[in-house]
Amino acid sequence: MQFLPLLCAAVMCLTAYNFVNFLQLNNYAVFRSAINYAEKQAIELLFAAGLSAAALITNIFIENEVFFIVGLLVFLAGFTAGIKARNKKRLKSAKTPLVYTKRVVRLYAFIFFFNTAVFYGAYFFYGIAAYSVFVYVVFAFYAADYCLACSIINIFESLNNRRYIKKAAKKLDSYKSLIRIGITGSYGKTSVKNILKEMLGKKFNVVATEKNYNTPLGIVRTLDKIDGDTEIFIAEMGAKRRGEIAELCDMVKPDIGIITGITAQHMETFKSLGNVAATKSELYYAVKDGACIFNTDDCHIRELDIINRPNAIKSGSAEGLDCIAENIKTDADGSAFTLRFNIKKLYRGGAAERSREVHIKTHLIGRANVTNITTAAAAAFFLGISAEDIKAAAEALEPVHNRAEIIKNGGITVIDDTYNSNPVGAKAALETLSMFDGRRIVVACGFAEQSKYLAEANGKFGRDIARIADMAVLVGSGAKHIADGMEKEGFDMKKVYSYASLNQAKVDFSKLFMNGDVILFENDMPDNLE
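Request: output the structure for the sequence above.
Response:
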């Protein structure tokens, strides 16, 4: 019967899908994953505890070795069938299913070998009866077993990641003439990065971090594209805790920084807006001889004392700034504005006598996109890109997938803003919705990771929706707070439909929507909210 421990270890590995999925969604933070798992997968936990308790009680009252073995086999089969059924159900409904990266493969392998050692140790230490009891107890608390295994391998992964990061920093340091740009902010990072890459591409050979990769390992994944011909590297920088932007800057060593905005995001880890501001400001302090561009249309950036220092470049729509968007007009067809530059010098150069004003008409909709273009343009002009080339790049821009992207679906217009969400971005998306004729509908789940500010943020979001929308479809746990805000604003609550999950809401979409509707899909709807 020495195959029993191996079988137990295999079952533990085969049924780990949901936990590993939560772990990946939470950036492999074990404690946060365990909390989310306990909240969202309570049925699995109760099933395991109930099945284990039943098997354990039976085991105690019947003293027969053959029964112990048969009972254990039946238990393992039932446990596997039950958990796998739940995994399959989740897989069908998951917005973000598990991605089998090399790290996930290593994690699965470690869960198997860890449990092989645990179960074989218990098998040889106990008799078969006591071993059965041990197995039932372990499976009753199977999530704790996953947590322990993942915590152990995370030590190795952390050391392995440091090795890659150190190697990447050394590679960057080997390119002495490479200009490095860091971009951070609570919102707008990816958009500004993509726009800036297009502008700088008019003159330079540019490499930028891919997609929304903004962690140390995300930056590492891009470095293979850098070679001796690369003139500029743009690194998007994200953070959830104090000090994480400084760590990224230690790796990249930026010459120029861009801070796009500050708002209440990732508040579960930041705890306060002051911590968010301090973390984003770490980029400014890391810039040595260059400059840092600030989007001063953001009210929290205007409160930073560092924006008045000599190497600060201010962009926005107010008078007296270094890069100004004026005469802004936005509608459902795009945006038009005048861009004026007051920047006095070029990076690694002297005074520049160049055209300092251009009129831009872009396909991108809304003031938020005008702000993103203006912020990127300030950096591009500072690096020597002409105003005419900045205009050409801005006018050739196409909407980015899932970021206020306009999609025609038959007679229905969809505004897809589901990539991510924060209070500032959501308000900008609602502004875009207001530019369209037709029945205006919002589909939203509200904001996540707002900690104690969650109810307040979603309530304000609800009030904003009520001022613009004709109907709302609300999803998940944030629906109540959004609805409360809408009701306080005097919205007709008969036109508000709430659902526990996006999949449940989709069933009724054909009944709720009709030709001529304009539907804003707002907020990333993370899998662990459904």
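The longest helix spans residues 142-174.
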